[in-house]
Amino acid sequence: MLLLICGLALFLGMHSVHMVAPDWRARQVAALGLMRWKGVFSLVSLAGLVLIVMGFGAARMQPHLLYGPPAWLRHVNALFTLAAFVLVAAAYVPRNHLKASLGHPMLAGVKVWAFGHLLATGMVHDVVLFGPFLLWAVLDFRVSRRRDRVAGTVYPAGSARGDAMALVIGAVAWIAVAVWLHGMLIGVPALA
Description:
Layout: H1 2-14, H2 17-20, H3 22-32, H4 34-60, H5 72-92, H6 97-102, H7 105-120, H8 124-151, H9 160-186
Helix pairs in contact: 1-4, 1-8, 3-4, 5-7, 5-9, 7-8
């Protein structure tokens, strides 16, 4: 479990620098240059992700039940995860209504993904993984929305084409993960 916690601290910590230390981040970008900063950011994040994967795998070998959710919540989680994939796609598809209204649909997607998994799983290692992701996404979304308001940021208006692209890309990615990748990579079938 310690490996999982260290990985979460590295990964989410690095992704929280802009929230908790924006001036320090700006100084690092100025000193290193944007591309080197992105390189450091990526390496630290990747190290955290590797530790999360290794730590979660190890923690699953010694499961401890915290709560027993009803089986139907697995199906609800599948819907939450589909919505999360569409939200994440909307972060990258230009001119869609989700990006226009939310500003940060990826963070909204992480919130939905983590919340759905907390509903459907009840092991300690699940709560240790998904709980911090949910908390981080909630805080980052609030900070990012506040920063947008202060800066007067306005996102481009959405279009039906952008909405359709976000929906199709998110749904296709969700199908690939739910049908094949989740079971293969995580060891748990997503749609069982």
